[in-house]
Amino acid sequence: MEIKFEKTSTVAAELTIEMEQADYQERVDKALKNTRKKANLPGFRPGQVPMSLLKKRFGREITAEEVQKLLSEKLYGYLREEKIDMLGDPLASEKQTAIDFDAEKLVFIFDIALSPQFDAKLSEQDKVPYYTIEVTDEMVDGQVKAYTQRGGHYDKVESFQEGDMTKGHIAELDEQGNIKEGGIQKEDAVILPGYFKNEDQKKKFEGVQTNTVITFNPAEAYENSAIELSTLLGITKEEAENVRGDFSYQITEITRYMPAELNQEFFDQVFGEGQVASEEEFRARVKAQLEAQFAEDSAYRFLIDVREYLEKRIGDLEWPDALLKRIMRANNPDKPESYVEDNYAGSIKELEWHLIKEQLADQTGIKVEQEDVLETAKAQTRAQFAQYGMANIPDEIITNYANEQMKKQEQAEALVSRTVERKLRVALMDVVTLQKQTISLEDFNKLFEQK
User: Fold this and answer.
1) Residues in CB range of 412: below 8 A, 6 or more apart
2) Does 445 lie in the same domain as 358?
3) What is the Cα–Cα distance from 448 to 442, expressed in whole angstroms?
C-alpha cells in the first residue's frame, strides 16, 4: 500500500492511497469465512455453503466493505500520525474514477482542506479593555421593587386609585339614561381602567368608592375594539361591533395589588431562611447579586474584545474556499443551492474564531470535563430562574434541570462551547494586560450597539 500527500496550495492538499489485492485479500477471506458460518441458502446446511458460490453471491459486496474499512483506517491513521491540520473531513477528489475491484491496483484520491497558519498566542504585551459596570442606588431600588412586586398580594380596598381592578354589575343604558329594557347586562364584570385608551373615560373612575354607580362609555374607553368589548360584556365580537352607547357600572369590589413588605418573612422567601436579617442587609445582598450578574456581562464583553483584537492582529487569512464550500454542501444536503453562498462568509468568521479558541485553550492548558459542563448548565439554569425572582432554588432542582439540558445533543454541544469560553475568559484575564475602566450600564450597552 502506498500513501502520497501533496500540497496543491498553502491551504489545500491531495492525498492518494493505492492498494493492491494483497493489502486487503486476507481481510476479505476472513470476512467470507465468517459469512459462510452464518449463511443460510436453500439446499445447503448452515456453514456448508460452497465457498465458490459464496464468492459469487457476496464476494464483491464483502470486498467493497472490507476495502472501505481498510481505507478509512489508513486514511485517518495517516492524518493523525502526520498531524495534518485539517478542516472538515476529506472529500473524494473530483479526479476520482469508479473503482474496479477486479483491477490489480485500487486508487483512491482525496482533497484535503488545510487550516491557515497563524499565531493567536497572547501575553502581557497585549492590552484588552475590561469594563466594570457601576451598580447605582437606582439599580438597587429597581431590583428591590421588582422583588417586592413579584412577592406581593391582592387586597380589597374601599377607594379606587390608578392601577386598581374593579368588579361590579354593568348594564346598558337607553338614550334617556335609564337601564335599557332587554339590553346588555353582566354580573361581576371586571374592569381595569388603567388599560382604557381614552383618558376622559379613565378619569370617571378616579377616587370612586365601592357600591358607587358610575356612567361611562365602554366603546370610547376601548376605542371601539370589538375584542375588548366582547370580553368585558360577555357578548360575541359581531354583537360588540354595534355597541356604542353608555353603560351604568355599580362597583361592588375594588382590588389593589400590594407589593410585599420588607420584613423577615419576605427576606427568607427571597434568599432563604436566616440569610438576611434587615432591609440594609437585603439591599446589600441585592447589590452583590447585581454586581455578580454584571461581572458575567463584563467577562462576556472581555472575550468579544479579545476576539476583535486578535482578528485585527491576525488580519485576513487565506482559506480553501472551493473545498470548504464543497464540505458545506456535503454537510447540508437538504438545503437549497443558495444556502452555501448565503452562509459561507459567516461560517468562515465562526471557523476562524473556533481556530483561535483552540490555540488559546492550548496556550492556557484549558481542559473541559463533564463536571465543568454541568456547572455551566447549572449557572444557566439559575439565571433563568432568577429572571422570575426565584433566587433560592434548591441545588437538587437546579442540578436536575441542568442534567435534562445535557441530554439533548444540540444543547449539550452549545454548553460545551460556553464552557470553553467561560474558562477562557478567566484564564486570559491573567495573561493579557487589562485596560480597566468603570462604565455605566447605558454606556456598556452602547458598546454592543456600535457593532
Assistant:
1) 373, 405, 406
2) yes
3) 11
Provide DSSP, 167-191. Answer: EEEEEEB-TTSSBPTT--EEEEEEE
DSSP secondary structure code for residue 158 in this structure: S
- The span from the CA of 340 to the CA of 324, in Å, is 10
The 3-state DSSP class for residue 364 equals helix
Q: Is 294 found in the same domain as 205?
A: no
Rg of the chain in Å (alpha carbons)? 36
Write out the H or E segment, with its range, that includes residue 241.
none
Distance separating alpha carbons of residues 170 and 250, to the nearest angstrom:
7
In a domain, 267, yes or no: no
Could you tell me where the DSSP H helices lie in 118-178?
137-150
- AA letter at 334: D
Q: Does some domain include residue 120?
A: no
Q: In terms of residue numbers, what domain contains 253?
A: 153-258
Contact partners, residue 293, CB within 8 Å, separation at least 6: 386
Residue 334 in contact with residue 26, Cβ under 8 Å? no
| Helices (H), ranges, 41-130 | 51-81
Question: Which CB contacts under 8 angstroms, 24+ apart, belong to 348-351?
Answer: 348/319, 348/324, 351/87, 351/324
CATH number, residue 32:
3.30.70.1050
DSSP notation for 54-71: HHHHHHHHHHHHHHHHHH
Cα gap 247→177, rounded to integer Å: 9
Cross-strand partners of 112: 13
**Cα 411 off chain centre by:** 8
Tens place of pLDDT per residue across the chain (451 aa): 999 999 999 999 999 999 999 998 999 888 888 877 777 666 676 666 677 776 777 778 888 899 999 999 999 999 999 999 999 999 999 899 888 888 889 999 999 999 999 999 999 999 999 999 999 999 999 999 999 998 899 999 999 999 999 999 999 999 999 999 999 999 999 999 999 999 999 999 999 999 999 999 999 999 999 999 999 999 999 999 999 999 999 999 999 999 999 999 999 988 888 999 999 999 999 999 999 989 999 999 999 999 999 999 999 999 999 999 999 999 999 999 899 999 999 999 999 999 999 999 999 999 888 888 888 888 888 877 776 666 667 888 888 888 888 888 888 888 888 899 999 999 999 999 999 999 999 999 999 986 5
Identify whether 219 is part of a domain: yes
CA–CA separation, 74 and 145 (whole Å): 66
Domain end among 258, 290, 312:
258
Residue 341 is placed in which grid cell? 453562498
Contact 324, 344 (CB under 8 A): yes
